[in-house]
Design brief:
This protein has 159 residues and is mostly beta strands. 9% of the residues lie in helices and 29% in strands. The strands form two sheets. A five-stranded antiparallel beta sheet has the order 2-1-6-7-8, with helices on one face. It is globular, with a radius of gyration of 17 Å. The model is unreliable at 106-124 and 127-141 (pLDDT under 50).
């Protein structure tokens, strides 16, 4: 018997924690051919989605996918995200949540004697970092944009 992945259960648990705490749950998603999202909002093959009650209609979080309708630019769009494509779920207000290793395009050969699916790799989403006072050179940024100061916390993905 193959082992059931914990990832969809963790997604639902963090979503429930966010809503119970009054936070806004956000999903970071790796976009590929199996994902249905508005492509005009995709940056570098990824999209961040607000999945709060007020931002979605008909939210369904199954073991295989997350589906809902949401408005983008005033137009209702159907959203479909395979659970394997979810990279993180977190509270927008404080950045707390859980990050996952994305498994988009995960079709890897499995040995015949291997009967259980590998468990997702989980990592805590780091808390927003305080502005560093040192003048040490920083790591190169993927998007070559200057770091934002102040404002709302954002998810920082460390590779």
């Amino acid at each position: 018997m193959s082992e059931i992945s914990t990832k969809p259960y963790m997604l639902r648990a963090i979503y429930e924690w966010c809503t119970d705490s009054g936070y806004t749950p956000y999903l970071a998603v790796k976009v590929d051919a199996s994902t249905t999202v508005p492509m005009e909002y995709v940056k570098k093959g990824e999209i961040v989605l607000n999945i709060s009650f007020g931002a979605t209609s008909g939210l369904k979080m199954d073991n295989d996918s997350i589906r809902f309708h949401a408005r983008f630019g005033g137009v209702s769009r159907e959203i479909y995200v395979p659970v394997n494509n979810v990279m993180a779920i977190y509270a927008n207000e404080n950045g707390q949540g859980m990050a996952f290793e994305p498994q988009a395009g995960f079709a890897e050969p499995v040995a015949e004697e291997e009967t259980s699916a590998p468990a997702p790799v989980l990592a805590a989403v780091p808390a927003p970092l305080q502005e560093a006072k040192s003048e040490a050179p920083s790591a190169p940024d993927d998007d070559n944009e200057p770091p934002k100061k102040g404002g709302r916390p954002t998810l920082t993905r460390i590779k």
